[in-house]
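Please, structure for the following, as C-alpha cells.
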Amino acid sequence: MTETSKSPLTGNLYEIPTLREGDRDVIEEFLTRNDEKPVVVVQGLGFVGSVMSLVCANAISADYAVVGVDLPSRESFWKIGSFREGILPVISTDPKVSAFFENARSQGNHLATFDNFVYSVADFVIVDVNLDVSKNSSKEGELINFDVDLGAFEKAIKTIADFCKPGVLIIVETTVPPGTCENVILPIMTKGFASRGFSKDAFKIGHSYERVMPGPNYIDSIQNFYRVYSGINQESADATEVFLRSIISTDNYPLTRLKNTNSTEMAKVLENSYRAMNIAFMVEWSRFAEEAKVDLYEVVNAIRMRDTHKNMMLPGIGVGGYCLTKDPLLASWSRQKIFNSKHSLSQSEQGVRINDQMPFFAYEFLLQKLNSLGRVMKGLKVLLLGVSYRGDVGDTRYSPVELFCKLLISAESKVYAHDYFVKYWEETSISVDNDIQSALDSDFDILVFTTLHSGYRSNRYLMETLERKSGLVVFDTIGLMTGDELEKIKCKHHLLILGNGD
C-alpha cells in the first residue's frame, strides 16, 4: 500500500517516495538552470525554514539557488509536495510571503526536496529543524518533569557531515541548549569529515538564532530585523557575517557579533525566558486582582505610562508557540547536562510551570462563574473564537487553547471552534470553521475569545449576533473587547473577563 502525506492546510494527498528512489534528476535539472549560483540548502521546512528559504531566494545582494529539504515522512512530506504544486505550506497574512514565493517561482531559483544528495552541492546549509522538550505534565497542565532528547537533531547534523563538501558554511538557526555548537555539532562534523578523509578545518559553523514572527510582519522579522551571530572560530564568524549581510537589511538593522556560540545560544534562550517570566509574573497578579476586585487592565495601563514599564504584560489564557513554552527549560537543561552544574535555573523552570497552567486557571475561572449562575459545564455548547497560539497566525503548536479545549471536552461539553487561519486542529482532532458568520450562527451557550485575531476586533457581525441573542456566557480571556462593546454585551449577556475583578 502506498503511503501518503496529507496537507493539513488543503487536505491534498502526496505520495511519499522511498529514499532509494531519490530526486537526483529534479535536483540536477534545477542546478543546471541555476548554473554558477551559490547553493543554499535550508534543512527543515517548518514555520521558520519555509520562509527563510524564500528570503534567501530573494536575497538583497546575492543570487542564490535555494533548496529546502525535509523528510519523506507522513508528517513532513506534504510540505515538499505543496511547494512543488505552487502552494505555500504556511498560511500568512503577510503579503510579502506570497510575493517572495511567486518571485522565486518565476526566477526558478527555489526547490523543495527530500534527497540528501543536495547537501553535497551546498555552499551554505541553514539548520532550521525542530528541537523539542518532552514534558511530563498533569492533566491540569502542571509541569512534573522534562527532558531534552538531542537524538533527532544529532541525526540531522550527521546527515550534513556525511554529505557536505569541504568549505561549506553551516549556520544554525534552531534554538538549541547553550553549548550545543561546541559540544554537539562540532564533534559530529569533525568525525564525519574525518571519516571521509577531509580536514577538521574543512567546514565552518556559525550560529545566528531566528526571531521569526509568523503574522503580518513574517518576512520583515527575518529580512528587516536585528540579528545576533557568532562562529566557532574567527573564520566561521566572518563567513556568517558575509552571508547574513546578503539577506538582511544591515544598513538599517546592524548585526551584533558575540564572542562565541555559547553566547549567542544563551542570548536566544535568555531573550525568551525573560518574556516567559514576565508573563508568569502577571499570572500571579491577575489572580490577586480577582480576589481584590481590581481591574488589572486598568492598573497595568496606568503603570505603562512610565517608559521603564511599557513592556508590562496583561493577563490571558496562556502562553503558546514553539519558543516561550520550552526555551527556559532548554537553558536549565543545558546548565545541568552540558555544563555539569549542580543547580538548575529554578526561577525559569517555575515560570514555565506557571504559564503551562494558565489555561487550567482560565477553565477554573469559568467553572466558578458558571457555578455562581447555578449552571454546570456538562451539556453546554461552547464556541471558541481562535485556536492558534497567536493572533493572525495559523500555528496551533503548543497553543494554550488546546488544554482549555480538552478540559471542556472532559467536562462533557460540546466544543465548536472558529479560526481564520486553521482548517483542521490536529492536536484535538477538531475541524475548524473558517467562516465567522457560519460559526456565530450556530447554536452555542458560551462564547470564548481565545486568540487575538484582528478579524475579531470591532467585528460588526459579531456584535450584531450578540445584540440579537441573549443570555449567553461571553468569556473574554485575552482582553479583546473594547469599552463600548463591553457595555453592550453586559446588557444582554453574562460577561466574564480574566483579571478585571468583576
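The chain has 17 helices and 19 strands. The two ends are 59 Å apart (CA to CA).
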